[in-house]
Amino acid sequence: MTGSRHATGTTRAVVLRLVDYRDSDRIVTLFTEAYGRLSAIARSARRSQKRFAGGLESLCVVEVTLEPGRGELETLREARPVLPCLGLLSSLERIEVAGTGFEMLRSALAERHPEPEVFELVVAFLLDLDAGASPGTRLLQFQLDTLSHLGLAPELEQCAVCAKEAPLSRAALFRAAAGGIVCRACGGGALRLSATTRQALLAHRGGSTAPSELVSTWPSDVQAEARALVSGLLEHAGFQRPKR
Ligand SMILES: [Zn+2]
To answer: Ligand 1 centroid to 124 CA: how many Å?
Structure first.
């Protein structure tokens, strides 16, 4: 699945990043449904808004038309919004939350590796935010779902260093750098996860049928621990933010 397949044709996408390039072009980092994460050049995007119809600047699902370009970059022919996200744009908090979610995708997605299920998670995430879902809870849900789908969920059942089993009836110490809980003999970790939080996180991972119900039912202390775990993970290996 990874590799040299040419990204050409029309596919749904979200815009993860937009950088001005030369006088009038823009480099667009996209998460496309068909090809995964890739960068494309949008020629004259700053001069002529017509071909892109606002589709590049919004936290929206867009339909893009790609053509093979020179070198590593595809050429972006066209981008137009396919789902209205006006409500999303009207709230600063929701915009920030969507931006945080997109930032995670930028660092967690491998280049040119299609992840259609994660793409569906993004669509649902944006639609729910637009429909008024609680931004913080919905973001946590999206982050946990995405980590799970990408096989990056933390180790919660045994020590990530020595593999000693940690009974689920007890709290455990989480070390982000190890990607999981670490027993005391191996040095433990900075974040204490209660037994309830560990069980909630594991149940969430198993429950792919109706995942959006779960996080919102968690008590606030469980949500807080899960949030600390996610931000720890995002700061560590595999999630280093790309240098600008
Ligand atoms: Zn250990």
So the answer is: 38
